[in-house]
Amino acid sequence: MKSGARALGVAESYRDETSQFAGVVVRASRVADGFVFSAATVGGSDATDTVCAMVDHLDREDIRYLLVAGIAPAWFNVLDLRRIHDRTDLPVVSVTFESSPGLEKAIREAFDDPDVVRDRLATYRAQPERRSVTVNDETVYVRSVGLDDSAAADVVRAFTPAGGRPEPLRVARLAARGLVEME
């Protein structure tokens, strides 16, 4: 991958009812060259729109990939990766860092309202399957829309200089945590 290729990484952090989202544009050469911030409702259903609005706000044509940390930020505010891809026209790669049996049981247990459970599960089930990807002797789990499995793995590896966390997501997570600590 060319050193000037850029990815936007989006991660979040929350303490109470609002989740702080941070996005960072990082070149494959590891240079950060843009930030964007927003918020979503903890336990809400606005995370997909939040991510799309962040991309719109940046208004940058040089971003080639969108990496998001996880699939259900802000306490099961499930991201619709296909909708994000359709609205931003960017390949979307969701990266998680732990093996799990999935979120269906946790979603059922987290919400009392059967309509909320139904809607979250429908969005969750509509997402691509996770695939394990080895990066620097670590394993991450990747879902992607707009890239085939091999290309998505290549993007994750290209933006991960050390360890298993891609640099755009690592820096975005730090920025989101900083926002929460300021509150």
Return the CATH class: Alpha Beta
> H/E series, N to C?
EEEHEHHEHHEEHH
Biggest sheet layout: 7 strands, mixed
* Poorly predicted regions: none
Distance between the termini: 38 Å
Helix count equals: 7
Please tell me the overall pLDDT.
97
Number-wise, the strands total 7
Strand content: 25-35%
Helix content: 25-40%
Spatial order of the strands forming the largest sheet: 3-2-1-4-5-7-6
Oligomer: single chain
* Alpha-carbon Rg, integer: 15 Å
Shape: globular
CATH topology name, in short, is: archaeoglobus fulgidus dsm 4304 fold
Given helix and strand content, the structural type is alpha/beta
Kindly give the count of domains: 1
The CATH superfamily name is: archaeoglobus fulgidus dsm 4304 superfamily
The CATH architecture name reads: 2-Layer Sandwich
Structure in words:
- Helix 1 packs parallel to helix 3 and helix 4 runs antiparallel to helix 5 (114-125).
- The chain has helices spanning 47-58, 73-76, 81-88, 104-110, 114-125, 149-158, 167-182; strands at 6-14, 18-27, 32-41, 63-69, 92-96, 131-135, 138-145.
- It has one domain (6-99, 130-182): archaeoglobus fulgidus dsm 4304 superfamily (archaeoglobus fulgidus dsm 4304 fold, 2-Layer Sandwich), CATH 3.30.2170.
- A seven-stranded mixed sheet has the order 3-2-1-4-5-7-6, with helices on both faces.
- It is of the alpha/beta class.
- Helices cover 38% and strands 30% of the residues.
Kindly summarize this structure in a few lines:
Belongs to the UPF0215 family. With 183 residues, this protein is α/β, with parallel strands linked by helices.
